[in-house]
Structures are given as C-alpha cells and as structure tokens.
Automatic annotation (TrEMBL):
The chain crosses the membrane at residues 85-105. Keywords: Cell outer membrane, Membrane, Periplasm, Transmembrane, Transmembrane helix. This is Prepilin-type N-terminal cleavage/methylation domain-containing protein. It comes from Deinococcus soli (ex Cha et al. 2016). The keyword Disulfide bond does not apply. It is found in: Cell outer membrane; Periplasm. Gene3D superfamilies: Glycoprotein, Type 4 Pilin. NCBIfam families: IV_pilin_GFxxxE (TIGR02532). The keyword Membrane applies. Pfam families: N_methyl.
Length: 222
C-alpha cells in the first residue's frame, strides 16, 4: 500500500517537534547542573539525560524511516524543499545535543565533588571555633580533634572529612585525624574530603608557606 504523503508529512512535523523538545530539556538540565551542586540532584539529572539520549536515538531512527518512505513518493518541489529543511533541522539538533552533552557531563562530575570541598571547609571552621573555648578552659590548644566535642565530630568525622597535620599536600599519612603540634599560642591542620578535589589549611600564627592560604580561604587542588 502506497504511503499517504500527508500522513508522512504530519509524522515528520511531529518528529521535528519532538527533537526540539529534547534539545530544550537538555538545555534545561545543563542549567540545573550549574545551579544545584547536590550529588542526589545530579544522580537524577544523569538518569534523565540517559532517558533523553534513548529518545533521541528512537526519534532519529523514525525520522530516517519516514524520510525513506517520502523519498519513494513523487512529491512537488514545495514538499521536497520542506523535507530537506526538516533533515537539516535534524542534523543541527543532533549537533547541539552533542555539544550540550559534552558540557553537561563534566559539569555533573565537578558539581558532585563540590559539596565535599564545602564539607571540608566547614569541618575546619568547626575546629577553629571549638579551639577558642578549649584553650580558655585548659590554657592551651589541642592537637586532637576528638577533644573538641560533638560539633567537631559531626562536622568532621561523621561527614567523612579527613583532618591531618599541616602539610603542603595531604596524603594517606596525613589523614590520621591528628593536627600539627599545638601549644598555648598556635595550632595548625589540613582538612580534606577523599571525594573532593582539594584541601584547606589553617595555621593560627601563619608563617604561611603559601601566602594567604592558611585561613581556610584557599582550596588547594590535589
């Protein structure tokens, strides 16, 4: 049975609409990834991205099938022009989706790690805040974070943050949950999360091996 040109034309128009919808949703996902760094959000975004990729493959196959049927029908020059324009749209949308995917996937990875860097910084701030009353009560700062109370435990140990001695770069050897030697005037430490991208340092008296980097204000990449 010969395909109805009008049915094929309508089907082609619907496929073009579907392609536009997929492209717009991918753009929306990219915007969400940039503004919502929470890991659970990005897990859902990755799943939706995979669903959209499957939809794109289905739309592409169906477009090829419809185009093949249209090519078997003798069409007027106007219809041929409309068909060619739709194919160009298909190629352009596929190219745009490829670019968005290349941007979106690295963004997912970076955004997933960002909360762990924030957790490390919050751990460091909790230590600094807890050292003040500790020194007031004992006359000296401590090099043992376990002595600083439940707030530090929650912000550091419970959050998976490593606390180590002040070092140029933390390694497994520095992740002993022990700060650099403390006394009545100074203490120092390094904080980082194993799933983050870097580490923070703090040094109360700050001889500062790296200028401005010993106040939990600089994320040093691994």
């Amino acid at each position: 049975m010969r395909p109805d040109p009008r049915v094929l034309h309508d089907r082609h128009a619907q496929l073009t609409h579907d392609l536009t919808r997929v492209a717009e949703e991918l753009d929306h996902l990219a915007r969400i990834a940039l503004t919502h760094p929470a890991p659970d959000v990005h897990v859902n975004l990755q799943r939706r991205h995979a669903d959209l990729h499957t939809q794109l493959q289905d739309i592409t196959r169906e477009t090829q099938r419809v185009t093949h049927l249209q090519s078997q029908i003798q069409e007027s020059p106007m219809n041929q022009h409309a068909q060619g324009f739709t194919l160009i749209e298909l190629l352009v949308v596929i190219a745009i989706i490829g670019v968005l995917a290349a941007i979106l996937l690295p963004t997912f990875s970076d955004a997933q790690k960002r909360p762990y860097n924030v957790a490390a910084q919050q751990c460091g701030r909790a230590i600094v805040a807890a050292q003040i009353p500790y020194r007031a009560g004992t006359g000296s700062y401590t090099s043992d974070p376990a002595q600083l109370g439940p707030d530090v435990k929650e912000a550091c140990q419970d959050a998976g943050v490593q606390v180590g001695v002040h070092a140029t770069s933390p390694t497994a050897a520095t992740a002993a949950y022990l700060m650099s030697g403390a006394n009545d005037v100074s203490f120092a430490f390094t904080v980082f999360h194993p799933r983050g991208t870097g580490f923070y340092r703090y040094w109360l008296t700050s001889p500062s091996p790296v200028a401005g980097g010993d106040r939990l204000n600089t994320l040093f990449p691994y």
